[in-house]
């Protein structure tokens, strides 16, 4: 029988060595080990996310017991120490002797006696000695960065953009467990009907705080295996994402373009808001992702979506036609969704932001040309970085005097427990 700690260690090693996305690696492992019971699946998930989320704080506690520091250790040893320290400090329901024994067993499988001794010694010291105090860190940015486990440059960036207090709130919210939300498909049923159905199946469901069609599901295990999901009564989507398509106000019969559409969460929402009447072009540069959009549309009973695979920065209007509404849900750093993808904070670099902001501006510029006069466009990202959000809009408007900016909304991950998101509405004269 697969052991959740051993599997968690495999995932952590892969995420660090290959800079892989934690949610993708974890899902692969969960799919491969279908025989794991629900408790072990929860534990595995908790161990992976928790260890990555609190990595820097765990290192801060571990460092004093390592003569050569964490940086010198092999990746697997480092990750095993973090995984064990996470359990000792954050999962106190697991007895500490069990944590140490399991760690030593895993070390035995992977390494020689010396490493076993090191793991055993460090963890026992960690239990015996008083916890290292955070009060030794004088710089306020550094203190938030260590306490909430974020890179210092990122906290400094948010503190500069929004102030220290907001930066701290963002960091704390990033370590919270996200609640799963679903968007009800009005083509199939009302929100009340879906809520009643889900409750009858034993799910704890309530309405979302802000999004009209949204429901929160507190115990979502096996939700995607339910007949309700398979028959297209809802789509799994974060509450913040559910606010984007309504901002574009698509109407039945319109010609709408979703320039960066895959996997189609917002395309299908647009089609639902149009009552499945009109025409939606769902474009994405990655052709292999288009099948996800087609599959979602089919499940939801949507028939007005056509897919195309062009680079949105170069696509010509002849290829796509002219549109009354365009959504540019741009690729971004993803700093608004760190709750779901904690590895992002360790893998992204400041230069990535510069690079992606250029791409975003190019996509927006191209979209502007595909819009008919009097048409409307929404630019959105799942990030909270000003360089990818307000700055892109400002730069765009400097070159496009025929555009006017309407509603702009920056959502933070602490606002209503969902993701950080940015959306701006632009109208063409
Ligand atoms: C934020 S995701 C879109 C999410 C989608 N709107 C949804 O709600 O499900 C950004 C998408 O942009 C696509 N993309 C990246 N560069 C692109 C480009 N140059 N042209 C078109 N699409 C691009 C990516 O493949 C990715 O699927």
UniProtKB/TrEMBL annotation:
Q: Which UniProt keywords apply?
A: Cytoplasm, Methyltransferase, RNA-binding, rRNA processing, S-adenosyl-L-methionine, Transferase
Q: Where are the transmembrane segments?
A: none
Residue positions of the active site: 382 (nucleophile)
Tell where it localizes: Cytoplasm
Source superkingdom? Bacteria
Which GO cellular component terms are attached?
Answer: cytoplasm
Entry keyword Metal-binding: no
| Keyword Cytoplasm belongs to the record | yes
Which InterPro entries does UniProt cross-reference here? MeTrfase_RsmB-F_NOP2_cat, MeTrfase_RsmB-F_NOP2_dom, NusB-like_sf, NusB_RsmB_TIM44, RCMT, rRNA_ssu_MeTfrase_B, RsmB-like_ferredoxin, SAM-dependent_MTases_sf
Q: Which SUPFAM superfamilies match?
A: NusB-like (SSF48013), S-adenosyl-L-methionine-dependent methyltransferases (SSF53335)
Identify the Pfam families for this entry: Methyltr_RsmB-F, NusB, RsmF-B_ferredox
Subcellular location, principal: cytoplasm
Record domain SAM-dependent MTase RsmB/NOP-type: where? 170-429
What biological process terms from GO does the record include?
regulation of DNA-templated transcription
Catalysed reactions, as listed in the record: cytidine(967) in 16S rRNA + S-adenosyl-L-methionine = 5-methylcytidine(967) in 16S rRNA + S-adenosyl-L-homocysteine + H(+)
Q: Which residues bind S-adenosyl-L-methionine?
A: 260-266, 284, 311, 329
Q: Where is the signal peptide?
A: none
Q: Which GO terms describe its molecular function?
A: RNA binding; rRNA methyltransferase activity
Name the Enzyme Commission number(s) assigned to this protein: 2.1.1.176
Matching NCBIfam families, A to Z?
A: PRK14902.1, rsmB
Q: Which PANTHER family match?
A: NOP2 YEAST -RELATED NOL1/NOP2/FMU SUN DOMAIN-CONTAINING (PTHR22807), RIBOSOMAL RNA SMALL SUBUNIT METHYLTRANSFERASE B-RELATED (PTHR22807:SF53)
User: What is its biological role?
Assistant: Specifically methylates the cytosine at position 967 (m5C967) of 16S rRNA.
Similarity field: Belongs to the class I-like SAM-binding methyltransferase superfamily. RsmB/NOP family.
What is the protein name for this chain? 16S rRNA (cytosine(967)-C(5))-methyltransferase
Specify the species.
Answer: Caldalkalibacillus thermarum (strain TA2.A1)
């Amino acid at each position: 029988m697969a052991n959740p700690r051993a599997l968690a260690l495999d995932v952590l090693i892969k995420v660090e060595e290959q800079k892989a996305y934690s949610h993708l690696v974890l899902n692969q492992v969960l799919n491969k080990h279908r025989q794991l019971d629900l408790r072990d699946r929860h534990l595995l998930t908790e161990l992976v996310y928790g260890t990555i989320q609190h990595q820097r704080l765990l290192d801060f506690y571990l460092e004093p017991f390592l003569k050569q520091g964490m940086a010198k250790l092999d990746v697997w040893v480092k990750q095993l120490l973090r995984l064990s320290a996470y359990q000792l400090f954050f999962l106190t329901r697991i007895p500490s002797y069990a944590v140490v024994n399991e760690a030593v067993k895993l070390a035995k499988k992977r390494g020689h006696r010396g490493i076993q001794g090191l793991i055993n010694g460090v963890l026992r010291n960690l239990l015996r000695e008083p916890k290292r105090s955070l009060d030794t860190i004088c710089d306020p940015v550094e203190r938030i960065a260590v306490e909430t486990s974020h890179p210092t440059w990122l906290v400094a960036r948010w503190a500069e953009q929004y102030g220290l207090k907001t930066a701290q709130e963002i960091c704390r919210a990033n370590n919270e467990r996200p609640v799963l939300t679903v968007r009800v498909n009005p083509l199939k049923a009302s929100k009340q009907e879906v809520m009643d159905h889900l409750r009858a199946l034993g799910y704890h469901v309530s309405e979302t705080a802000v999004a009209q069609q949204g429901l929160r599901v507190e115990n979502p295990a096996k939700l995607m295996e339910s007949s309700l999901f398979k028959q297209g009564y809802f789509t799994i989507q974060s509450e913040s994402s559910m606010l984007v398509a309504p901002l574009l106000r698509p109407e039945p019969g319109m010609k709408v373009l979703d320039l960066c559409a895959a996997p189609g969460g917002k395309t299908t929402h647009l089609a639902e808001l149009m009552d499945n009447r009109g025409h939606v072009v769902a474009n994405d540069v990655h052709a292999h992702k288009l099948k996800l959009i087609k599959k979602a549309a089919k499940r939801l009973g949507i028939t007005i979506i056509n897919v195309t695979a062009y680079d949105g920065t170069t696509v010509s209007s002849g290829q796509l036609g002219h549109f009354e509404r365009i959504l540019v849900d741009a690729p971004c750093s993803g700093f608004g969704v760190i709750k779901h993808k904690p590895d992002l904070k360790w893998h992204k670099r400041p230069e990535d932001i510069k690079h992606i902001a250029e791409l975003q501006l190019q996509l927006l510029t191209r979209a502007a040309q595909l819009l008919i006069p009097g048409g409307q466009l929404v630019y959105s990202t799942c990030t909270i970085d000003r360089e990818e959000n307000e700055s892109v809009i400002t730069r765009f408007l400097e070159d496009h005097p025929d555009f006017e900016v309407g509603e702009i909304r920056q959502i933070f991950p602490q606002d209503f427990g969902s993701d950080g998101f940015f959306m701006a509405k632009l109208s063409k004269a």
